[in-house]
Amino acid sequence: MKAVLFDLDGTLIDTAADFIRIIQQMCHEAGRPLVDAELIRAQVSEGARAMVKLVYPELQVEDPLLQQHRQRFLNSYGAEIAVDTDLFAGMYALLEELEEHEIPWGIVTNKPRWLSEALLKALNLSERCAVLVCPEDVTRTKPDPEPMYLAAQQINIAPEDCIYVGDHPRDIDAGRHARMYTILAAYGYLPLQYKDDLTAWQADYIVKDVPELHQHIQKLVLQQHSMLS
Q1: How many domains are there within the chain?
Q2: Fewer beta carbons below 10 Å: N end or C end of the chain?
Q3: Mind listing the pLDDT tens digit for each residue in 16-49?
């Protein structure tokens, strides 16, 4: 293994608190019942539309009004993108060790580029990230392997020499289809309908927290290169 690629929300960065804040503020403004924080957290990986639909469950996906609420949500999020957001505990140490040994790390996400770039800039990660692949960069997004192939190409490393870490079945599917080594981040924003049987995702490995992820990546990458202190 020569590189580590991450999904963004719920895998590399803990963004849920800001989404919860905005969705619950939308509930307050609309005079609607407050959506439970854990329910919002479980919908993060499903995207902005799924989170907004928690506030307006009666609206159909194709309803223009739902799209308007979604855009309002995105605008609010973009304006205050990292109020309560940070890397998951232990992730800084993992990234620093990868960088120390010149192992590139990057991001393959379904989050729009303008939000992804703003988030990385807010957390001072823009210059550290070797590659960022967003939906605008491809014709087919995860679970299709196209974004995975593009990320590997941009860092000039064969897909089968890359690790991909994610917290959604589409992450694992995309990584598997690209012949990458896949790690399921069970500490992330697992969708409710898929969280009961994590082995069904068919990831190569499952980790319960970032320290375990760090330890496993050490075995796969750092020890192979005789880089452990």
Answers
A1: 2
A2: C
A3: 999 999 999 999 999 999 999 999 999 998 889 9
Whether residue 213 sits in one domain with residue 127: yes
Q: Are residues 70 and 108 in the same domain?
A: no
**pTM of the entire structure?**
0.93
pLDDT of residue 224: 65
- Selected catalytic residue, list 9, 14, 167, 171: 9
Same domain, 48 and 125: no
Q: How many CB atoms lie within 10 A of CB 65?
A: 11
Does 141 reside within a domain?
A: yes
Among the options 7, 167, 171, 173, which is catalytic? 7
Would you call 209 a catalytic residue per the annotation?
no
Cβ neighbors of 5 (< 8 A, separation 6 or more) are 105, 106, 107, 108, 131, 148, 151, 162, 163, 164, 165, 180
Annotated catalytic residue 9: yes
Question: What is the DSSP secondary structure assignment for residue 59, as one 8-state letter?
Answer: S
